[in-house]
Amino acid sequence: MSHFTPDPALDLVLERTIAVSPERVWAAWTEPELLKQWFTPAPWKTTAVDLDLRPGGRYVTTMESPEGDQYPNAGCYLQVEPNRLLVFTSVMTEDFRPVAPANGAGDLAFTARVEIEPTGDGGTRYRAIAMHAQEDACKQHADMGFAEGWGAALDQLVALMS
Amino acid sequence: MPKRSQVDPALPGIFHALADPTRLAVVERLSVAPASASELAKPFAMALPSFMQHMGVLERAGIVTSHKSGRTRTYQLAPGSLQLAAAWLSEFRNHWERALDQLDQLLITTNPAGVGADDEPTQHKEQP
């Protein structure tokens, strides 16, 4: 995979070496029944997952709060390199069709990059990067709980796939 | 200091709820129009559970209210609580304006020759 250098002003990075093989990490991200089990920090749940795993393919994940409120999220995949790299974005839907900016929330666009590299001893050097268009959006994502959310989800991925 | 018999018990919770950049941004956003939780948080799915804790703080402080329509929750500002905070803060402004008026009087009294009288002693009386 091409080397990507995050921009500290615009990107948030979660980097960790985990004792899960690249193939298992890939499965956790790309098989709906697995994704449902780790993607959302408990006590929240992921209740519906619809993935079309190809560049330009859609993803829809629906989260449910402990109170039963539902929060759908949709976007499309940009790069799909099995066991190595998954890139997806919220600014386009199926077949790269642009999303109309939400009312007053148009600056929350983001692209995520999940990098999976073998460590040599069966584990994975895992790096997840959330890229933003503006420093404000990056800071907002950080303040909203990027590190807690992505970290807690990764803990759940490791627990599920170990 | 302003004379008060007692502080409104809701005030500490209101100021606590406002003392956070994420929650302030939400209040600013909701001052434009009501928004669903998804609109406020989209598309940061994995951060959503953390973010909703912020919404809980704002709602418990009475700064926002929410209602559920189907399986979507919409938030709007509850202006009453911010008026409570604004009223509390404005008492300090009144207090300092009175104090500065008294300082004016004192300076005029003790400086009958009017030395420095061109220094616009009434500037602070301007209303914003």
Describe the structure.
The complex is a heterodimer of chains A (162) and B (128). Chain A has four helices and nine strands. Helices cover 26% and strands 38% of the residues of chain A. Chain A has 162 residues and is of the alpha+beta class. Chain A has one domain (11-161): START domain (Alpha-D-Glucose-1,6-Bisphosphate, Chain A, domain 4), CATH 3.30.530.20. Chain B is mostly helical and 128 residues long. In chain B, helix 1 packs antiparallel against helix 4 (48-60). The longest helix of chain B is centred in the C-terminal third of the chain and has 32 residues, at 79-110. Chain B is elongated and about 75 Å long. The chains are: A alpha+beta (162), B mainly alpha (128).
Briefly say what this structure is.
The complex is a heterodimer of chains A (162) and B (128). Chain A has 162 residues and is an alpha+beta fold. Chain A has helices at 22-30, 32-38, 135-144, 146-161, and strands at residues 11-18, 45-51, 58-64, 70-81, 85-89, 92-93, 97-98, 110-118, 124-132.
Oligomer: heterodimer
Number of domains of chain A: 1
Output the CATH topology of the largest domain in chain B.
Arc Repressor Mutant, subunit A
Tally of contiguous helical segments of chain A: 4
Mean pLDDT figure of chain B:
82
Terminus-to-terminus distance of chain B: 22 Å
Share of residues in helices of chain B = 40-55%
Strand order of the largest sheet of chain A: 1-9-8-5-4-3-2
Q: Helix coverage percent of residues of chain A?
A: 25-40%
What is the terminal separation of chain A in angstroms? 25 Å
What is the CATH C level class of the largest domain in chain B, in words? Mainly Alpha
Q: Quick one: CATH class of chain A?
A: Alpha Beta
Any idea what the shape of chain A is? globular
Largest sheet descriptor of chain A? 7 strands, antiparallel
Count of DSSP strands of chain A:
9
Beta-strand content bin of chain A: 35-45%
